Amino acid sequence: MSDSSNVSNVGGGSGQDEKGVLPNATAVLVLGIMSIVGCVLYGIVGLICGIIALILHKRNKEVYATNPIKYAASWENARAGYVCAIIGVSISALYFIYFMIAFIIVASVVSVAL
Question: Most buried by CB count within 10 Å: which residue of 71, 72, 96, 104?
Fold first, then answer.
């Protein structure tokens, strides 16, 4: 009798909604935060982390669309990471453009001075 009750639970439960975790929700959040922090490193680190976070968020969005109730808890982390990634990519792009313009100006001044 006990064997039949164990077999019925092997399939994943008694029909209750189990909370799932999106595969890359934590990674999106960490990379989104790192994109904001990394923007002070000439913008390159922030751009790389932010773009990776945006790509991972897109994949998570597709998984979330299949079953929103199951992934509701981890979706909040993924959305927060997405917002951080957008901010980080924007700031990093501005820093990168600023440093490129400054480098071009300094290089042209040095080449004229020689």
Answer: 71
